[in-house]
Write a structure and sequence with these properties.
This protein is mainly alpha-helical. It has one domain. It is about 70% helix and about 0% strand. A two-stranded antiparallel ribbon has the order 1-2. Strand 1 and strand 2 form a beta hairpin.
Length: about 400
């Protein structure tokens, strides 16, 4: 497989949106580890990416996994390689990067009075609870943990299923996902998950008790895996990206309208149903539009692409801890919302770049922040797929 630069750019953009989204979480009424004074309307622009940002990342990860599976040839080699690349930074992140988040949350919400050093040395690794929080925690790194589990399931399936069964599944996917079903089937599945399989359920990010997340994200991961060897499906996404974008925009207008009418409250019948269905439509239509546009317009390399692609994983590992800590420091200053938002974005970007540039320059730290142990000497050719 050739590297798909369009999906690299999508992945970079999706993680950039994720960072801004998590900055926004500080200001909306929704629960978060640290809060600053905000306004209900901040939730409205956040709804523009809320239904699809994670689904897109899992899909792109599935696409990259197909390339890695083909390159490693044996499923057990694929599983070993992915385990090393995902579990090492996950464990490092849980032990070193994440702890500041529950410390801030316990201090701000539950009256915890000890210093961070005391918390990290005496309370964080208790494998039990303080207040409502179970420690140690992975917080935002749940994505990495879920991706590792999905990788193992994929490798197990490739090991156990005969090759003719795998080929039949791929042919069935390609034959189905090239016409109207390309929009209808994923949207119908998302509505089914929301209204029949897990009505009213919310994601827990606790792995074992998070059926709604697994039934939502694992199919996107598998879709990306199958898409990597389905050029007809990719061509259909390219041909329909404008129609998909119009549908996604119309669905977002409905979502935003309902949110503005009933901000942060329980929506009366039937508007709660309308809201959930519109989110499902927006979620898949936006993903379909973005993939189609990326393949048709962004599938080309640029000088900054390689560094940004490499930087994405370290940025993801550290960004939320920076946001939470800086918000904690800003709280006593009572800055206007716009100023606080700008400071948070600037501080987060500066901290992420420092974390990435410093970590990649020190050989032993590279695997801990999600980078290959040794920097590649290749400067012009980069056929390897994105790692997350």
């Amino acid at each position: 497989m050739q590297r798909h630069y369009g999906l690299d750019w999508l992945r970079i953009g999706a993680f950039a949106i994720l960072i801004v989204y998590h900055v926004g979480m500080v200001f909306v009424p929704w629960d978060f580890h640290a809060k600053l004074p905000g306004a209900w309307w901040v939730a409205v622009p956040m709804m523009a990416s809320n239904p699809w940002r994670l689904a897109l990342l899992f899909l792109v990860s599935g696409y990259a996994s197909r390339a890695l599976m083909l390159r490693n040839k044996a499923p057990w080699r694929f599983a070993r390689q992915r385990s090393l690349r995902l579990l090492v930074p996950l464990i490092f992140g849980m032990a070193v990067i994440v702890p500041v988040q529950p410390w801030v949350e316990l201090r701000e919400k539950y009256g915890y009075a000890e210093s961070f050093v005391h918390f990290w040395l005496h309370d964080y690794f208790r494998f039990g609870t303080i207040g409502p929080l179970f420690l140690p925690a992975w917080n935002h790194l749940w994505f990495v943990a879920y991706l590792w589990v999905y990788t193992l399931v994929l490798a197990l399936g490739a090991l156990l299923l005969p090759s003719f069964v795998r080929r039949a599944i791929q042919r069935g996917f390609t034959w189905t996902m090239r016409g109207p079903a390309l929009l209808v089937v994923p949207i119908a599945w998302m509505v089914l998950v929301s209204f029949w399989l897990f009505p009213g359920a919310r994601e827990t990010h606790g792995l074992i008790d998070d059926g709604v997340a697994h039934f939502s994200y694992f199919p996107f991961f598998l879709f990306g895996y199958a898409l990597a060897c389905a050029p007809q499906t990719l061509a259909a996404l390219v041909a329909r990206w404008k129609a998909s974008a119009v549908i996604a925009l119309a669905a977002y207008v409905v979502v935003a309208g309902v949110e503005i009418r009933w901000p942060g409250s329980r929506m009366p019948y039937p508007w709660g149903i309308v809201f959930s269905v519109a989110r499902s439509v927006e979620g898949w239509a936006a993903v379909a539009a973005l993939i189609g546009y990326a393949d048709g317009h962004w599938n080309r390399d640029r000088s900054w692409r390689r560094m940004l692609t490499e930087a994405v994983f370290p940025f993801y590992i550290v960004h939320q801890s920076i946001i939470v800590l800086v918000a904690f420091w800003l709280a006593p200053l009572a800055l206007p919302g716009g100023v606080a938002f700008a400071v948070l974005v600037a501080a987060t970007l500066a901290g992420c770049w420092s974390f990435y540039l410093g970590g990649r320059a020190i050989g032993p730290l590279r695997p801990l922040i999600g980078l290959r142990r040794h920097a590649s000497r290749r400067t012009h050719v980069d056929p390897r797929p994105a790692i997350v």
